[in-house]
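Backbone shapes recur. Consider a single case.
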Amino acid sequence: MKLGSKAIALAALLSSSLYLSPVLLAQTQQTTVPDAPAPQGPPPLSGVDGPITPGQGAEGLPGSASDSSGNPKSSSTSPTSPSANPPQQPAQTPSGQPPSSQPPSSQVKDDIQTTAPELGAAAITKYVVNVNYVEVPVIVKDAKGSQVAGLTYRDFKVYENNVRQVLRTFSVDPAPLSIAFVIDQSLTSDVMAKVNDSLGAIQGALTPYDEVAVFTYNNGAKEWTGFTGAEGNRLPAVLALAKASGSDEQVPINSGPLAGCNIRENGNCVDPNLQPGRSAGNGSFISLPKEIHTLNDAILSAAKELSTRPKERRRIIYVVSDGKEYGSKATLREVVRYLQTNKITLYATGVGASAVWGEGYVSRLHLPFTMYDNILFKYTYATGGDLDSERNMNGIEKSYEKIASEARNQYTLGYLSHESIYDSKYRPIEVHVDRPGLEVIAKKGYYPSGQDYR
């Protein structure tokens, strides 16, 4: 009975809702949903009547020197003036939003066109101009062999192919050095000992801005380290490893039972070059063994490593040798051309027989079908370097400082060649100084390279 009474009451309630008035029914069913807030723009700056132009400021800004028409503003527009009108409130649009404070799109476009070329052209535009710029480092010495300072660009005259060039740049600033150090290990044992003892003085002639690579040669070139800091701990460790005992000259045996081969192993000659009938000869003829001094190959190996260094650094090859050359695959002319193409200057300290007074000049003479006794002067003359001959350890140590100072402190002359940039022929150079009694040391010419036009 209770369940039936509840069902009757529910049916009566539903039937009564059908007879409600339409207005009352709509009020009971409608839910109140608040409106979303309208987007509001940033409030305009107070006292700004016109648009804000990038790079020019706001037109009509209080306190500015002129208005949008370029006329000077009067002091009556200052907000501090009693007669100044108070800033007006922004008018409301029909949608309830204030008007935008940005200028029209056409105004923005005009501003970008006027300001973008001045701001963006220098930042993103890259100009490439192919010019044949030639740089010539020059050393000037007096009669005592000391460097001459205080010269100006008016004292120099540069000729290329017998045509005087107009100097475009002139500098006396010292340059950082990239030095490829080449040590001759085919020296005799007594000379090699002096060179080994002098290697510790190399770092004293260099600066923290310099870098050094170490090469040695005897029968072939060997690179001990690539370019490393001149004042670092790696360089003295590598120089200690590069020391050698040298080789002593011995009288070959050309007759008797030991002729042709002094050392045998299992009945065979250890060195095939000393077998009878070859370089050592036999009892019927005499042929002395040939010495091996691969100086050209060592300089070429150092030059290849040096050519990768930045162009703003001064590229130097420093050779400590007696200058003998025999057995290299590369010729003197090929190596000199490579040095002149890559702007590499060769300096050298002559030791051994090439440093002996009188014998050093005789060793420059070459007899056909014989070994070259000294070719270092040919390298230094062609590349604008210097050759210093020393016999004792103290002189060798001083030559390191002297040559490093000459290579760093030079007059740098620059000009634009009148030759075509697409011409790869050799171009001779002559540098003159309009002062008597001075020695001018500069490279004798160069070969243009495609790296100069990048």
Notes: The chain has ten helices and 18 strands.
